[in-house]
């Protein structure tokens, strides 16, 4: 079996398991909003070494107009990915919609499974996000992900999924 993993030169050895994610990724995806309406979006995700045993993460999603061009921002989140020596992973995210989420999971070479450990919302949060799970993977050189969310109004269900190319 041949596994294609890039590890950037000079990367903190503790980040080796996430080395294949380092860089910028862009593409389009699909989603279902919390009211059950389908939508398409453009996604931009960046992973950077943070100068310590963590990766800095920034994700932005934009509405697509009738011509398929990115328009208004739908969502933005930022955070830190902290791999552990046992291949577990801790992720802290803060979302522009008014919540912070702690996710925990497992790194399996080029597949990462995460689930919410805790979610905190502001009083004015745009969605009453209460739990989530995420899957990230490298497929044919692309970054693919799926994000499921639960709110106080509905159980865990698919929310956003995309295939992104390295830029």
Automatic annotation (TrEMBL):
Record: residues binding heme b = 159
A single MF term (Gene Ontology): peroxynitrite isomerase activity
Q: How is the cofactor bound?
A: Binds 1 heme b group per subunit, that coordinates a highly solvent-exposed Fe(III) atom.
4Fe-4S among keywords: no
Catalytic reactions of this protein: peroxynitrite = nitrate
- Gene3D superfamilies for this protein: 2.40.128.20
Key words of the record: Heme, Iron, Isomerase, Metal-binding
Annotated pathway: Nitrogen metabolism
Record has Isomerase as a keyword: yes
Q: Which cofactor does it need?
A: heme b
Q: Where is this motif: GXWXGXG?
A: 23-29
THAP4-like heme-binding domain mapped to chain residues = 15-166
Q: EC number(s)?
A: 5.99.-.-
Family matches, as InterPro entries: Calycin, Nb(III)_bact/plant, Nitrobindin, THAP4-like_heme-bd
Anything noted about its domains? Forms a 10-stranded antiparallel beta-barrel structure able to accommodate a hydrophobic ligand in its interior. In fact, this fold hosts the heme group, which is located in a wide surface cleft.
Q: Which HAMAP family match?
A: nitrobindin (MF_01297)
The entry sums up its family as follows: Belongs to the nitrobindin family.
Its function, per the record, reads:
Heme-binding protein able to scavenge peroxynitrite and to protect free L-tyrosine against peroxynitrite-mediated nitration, by acting as a peroxynitrite isomerase that converts peroxynitrite to nitrate. Therefore, this protein likely plays a role in peroxynitrite sensing and in the detoxification of reactive nitrogen and oxygen species (RNS and ROS, respectively). Is able to bind nitric oxide (NO) in vitro, but may act as a sensor of peroxynitrite levels in vivo.
Q: What is this protein called?
A: Peroxynitrite isomerase
- Which species expresses this protein natively? Tessaracoccus oleiagri
Q: Lineage, please?
A: Bacteria, Bacillati, Actinomycetota, Actinomycetes, Propionibacteriales
């Amino acid at each position: 079996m041949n596994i294609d993993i890039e590890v950037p030169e000079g990367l903190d050895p503790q980040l080796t398991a996430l080395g294949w994610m380092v860089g910028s990724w862009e593409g389009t995806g699909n989603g279902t909003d919390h009211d059950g309406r389908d939508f398409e979006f453009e996604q931009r995700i960046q992973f950077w070494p943070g100068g310590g045993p963590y990766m800095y993460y920034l994700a932005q999603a934009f509405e697509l107009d009738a011509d398929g061009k990115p328009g208004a921002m739908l969502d933005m989140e930022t955070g830190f990915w902290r791999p552990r020596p046992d291949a577990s992973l801790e992720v802290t995210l803060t979302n522009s919609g008014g919540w912070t989420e702690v996710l925990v999971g497992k790194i399996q070479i080029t597949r990462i499974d995460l689930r919410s450990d805790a979610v905190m919302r502001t009083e004015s949060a745009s969605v009453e996000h209460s739990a989530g799970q995420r899957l990230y993977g490298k497929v044919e050189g692309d970054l693919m992900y799926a994000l499921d969310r639960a709110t106080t109004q509905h159980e865990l269900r698919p929310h956003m999924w995309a295939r992104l190319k390295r830029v």
